[in-house]
Every structure is written in C-alpha cells, then in structure tokens.
C-alpha cells in the first residue's frame, strides 16, 4: 500500500512538474494570449510603432483652417457671415483694419454668429489669424 502511494505520489509530482515546464514557444504563445488588448504608447515613444496621434507638424495654413473651421459659415453666408470672395461684403470690414479683423477672428463678435475662433477650439491664435488673412486675400 505504501509502495503504491509512493509510486502515485511520484507520478503526481512528475505530472505537476511537466505541467509547469513550458517550452519557449509555449510560453510565448500563452503570453500572447493573455497580453492586454492595448498598449499605452506615449507621445514620442517610437518603440511601439510611433505615436498613436500624429503630432502636429506645425501650424496649419490659413486655407487649411478655413476649410476645417470657417467654411461652414463663410462659404454659405450662414447667419450673415461675409462670404469668402464677396468683395463688396468684405470691403467695409477690411476698411476697419486687419488688426480688428484678427481680433474679431480670435475673440468673436458678441451678439453675432461669429463665435471666438469661429468655434474652433483646437485652433491657435496664429492659425485663426492665418485663416483671416486667407479670407481677406481671397476677398479683395
Ligand atoms: C457659425 C458660423 C461662423 C463660423 C464657423 C465662422 N464665422 Fe466668422 N463670422 C460669422 C458671422 C455671422 C460674421 C458676421 C458677424 C457680424 O459682423 O455681424 C462673421 C465675421 C467674421 C469676420 C469679420 C469680422 C469683422 O470685424 O467684420 C472675420 C474676420 C471672421 N468672421 C473670421 C472667421 C474665421 C477665421 C473663422 C474660422 C476660424 C470663422 N470666422 C468662422 C460666422 C462664422
């Protein structure tokens, strides 16, 4: 009886030992299966395939900002917005001076549809100024 138990115990130990002895490829396969779904890739860390969000390559051009953030109103005249290219509509505004137009582009005009930065929350002051210059250039 004791002998049988000893054999049994030895067998169990052998089985248990073999269960934890994994080959490298088995280990790699398991690690892959239990790996987290996503990795955090910090900006600037190139070891994980580059940054997930493209780092801005500098300020956008006036036209790019216009197309993305101003066109909705300034190509349609929505809310009385002066349309880009409408020389008459822009003449009186241009007469106020470019600094005023830049300021109104950045701060908006209270009580009108012209919100601060035309509502473009991710536009820098610099980009809004470029968009104003672009509209003015195209409208005289
Ligand atoms: C939701 C509509 C809307 C969007 C979007 C919008 N505008 Fe305007 N904008 C207006 C309206 C309306 C006016 C005319 C306001 C008035 O004088 O009554 C105006 C006027 C202006 C003027 C003339 C200001 C002046 O002093 O006469 C500038 C410059 C201007 N917008 C720049 C921009 C720029 C740059 C963007 C994009 C970044 C933009 N706008 C986006 C509605 C908009």
Automatic annotation (TrEMBL):
Tell me where in this chain the Cytochrome c domain is found: 57-139
GO terms, molecular function: electron transfer activity; heme binding; iron ion binding
Keyword Manganese in the entry? The reply is no
Protein name per UniProt: Cytochrome c5 family protein
Q: Which UniProt keywords apply?
A: Electron transport, Heme, Iron, Metal-binding, Signal, Transport
Q: Does the keyword Signal apply?
A: yes
What is the organism field in this record?
A: Parahaliea maris
Q: Name one Pfam family in it.
A: Cytochrome_CBB3
- Tell me the leader sequence span: 1-19
């Amino acid at each position: 009886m004791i002998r049988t138990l000893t054999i049994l115990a030895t067998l169990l130990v052998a089985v248990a030992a073999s269960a934890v002895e994994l080959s490298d490829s088995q280990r790699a396969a398991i690690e892959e299966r239990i790996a987290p779904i996503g990795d955090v890739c910090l900006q600037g860390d190139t070891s994980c395939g580059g940054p997930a969000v493209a780092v801005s390559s500098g300020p956008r051009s006036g036209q790019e900002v216009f197309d993305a953030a101003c066109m909705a109103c300034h190509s349609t005249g929505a809310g009385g917005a002066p349309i880009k290219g409408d020389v008459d509509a822009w003449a009186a505004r241009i007469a106020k001076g470019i600094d005023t137009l830049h300021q109104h582009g950045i701060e908006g005009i209270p009580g009108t549809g012209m919100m601060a930065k035309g509502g473009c929350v991710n536009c820098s002051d610099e980009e809004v100024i470029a968009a104003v210059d672009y509209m003015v250039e195209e409208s005289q």
